[in-house]
Amino acid sequence: MKIIVKENDIEGGAAAFKIFEKGIKNGAKVLGLATGSTPVTLYQNWVKSDLNCDNLTSINLDEYVGLKPDNPQSYHYFMQKHLFDKKPFKKSYVPDGLEAAKDPQAAADHYNQIIKDNPIDIQLLGIGRNGHIAFNEPGSSFDTVTREVKLTDNTIKANSRFFDNIDEVPKSAICMGIANIMSAKKVVLMAFGKNKAHAIKEMIEGPVTEQVPASILQKHLDVVVIIDKAAASELYDKYKK
Ligand SMILES: N[C@@H]1[C@@H](O)[C@H](O)[C@@H](COP(=O)(O)O)O[C@@H]1O
């Protein structure tokens, strides 16, 4: 893993954008994209740039089961607002939360086929405080592919900040699996803030275990981790400076 420690999320977003820009200029065409508060500074750099996205395909990690694409809390809506309204891609896939509510297996099979047909060149990730990636919660098998996943109480609580109240947070999501994520040629993981420090330490320095889903990235051959000093604060000394 290559670890880049920046002062804050603004610098981190700029550094992440440079990696995507370089990758795209070098031929990356299929990007795995992520939501959450963490990638916002990356997308801010992206929309300000003159990067041509007309030939790019994006495949998002996850979506809440039952939310319509025009629901402001849906990940469809997030992507439109933060990136695609200003930088439309040739094709953008986000799992279908409504299809998943009706027939989760069909929605998952459909999405796995999309990933098979469009191998991911660069996959963007955030990380949950418990080490989850996308919505692959602790205990998820490393073999998983896209499927419906139940959200843990902690994740529901953490994500309730985006909803009017906690009861509105969906209880499940349709989510790429860890095997889908590991199939990407390159992975860029971003994390900012003290509340991510423990998960970052476990991911980088802990054992590879399904109890910390992100720890599997130690086995991927091309991972760049972009964190700020707060998220690096529990790491072995050399990263803290
Ligand atoms: N499914 C998303 C993840 O993809 C994201 O990485 C995580 C952290 O979110 P944030 O970046 O807002 O801290 O939250 C959610 O659970």
From TrEMBL:
Keywords for this protein: Carbohydrate metabolism, Hydrolase
Domain Glucosamine/galactosamine-6-phosphate isomerase: 25-220
Any single Gene Ontology cellular-component annotation: cytoplasm
InterPro entries given in the database record: Glc/Gal-6P_isomerase, Glucosamine6P_isomerase, Glucosamine6P_isomerase_CS, NagB/RpiA_transferase-like
SUPFAM superfamilies: NagB/RpiA/CoA transferase-like (SSF100950)
One GO process term, biological-process aspect: carbohydrate metabolic process
E.C. designation(s): 3.5.99.6
Record GO terms (molecular function): glucosamine-6-phosphate deaminase activity; identical protein binding
Reaction(s) catalysed by this chain's protein: alpha-D-glucosamine 6-phosphate + H2O = beta-D-fructose 6-phosphate + NH4(+)
UniProt-listed Pfam families: Glucosamine_iso (PF01182)
Biological pathway: Amino-sugar metabolism; N-acetylneuraminate degradation; D-fructose 6-phosphate from N-acetylneuraminate: step 5/5
Catalytic residues, chain numbering: 62, 130, 132, 137
Enzyme class: hydrolase
Function noted in UniProt: Catalyzes the reversible isomerization-deamination of glucosamine 6-phosphate (GlcN6P) to form fructose 6-phosphate (Fru6P) and ammonium ion.
NCBIfam families named among the record's database cross-references: nagB
Assigned protein family: Belongs to the glucosamine/galactosamine-6-phosphate isomerase family. NagB subfamily.
Entry protein name: Glucosamine-6-phosphate deaminase
Underlying gene: nagB
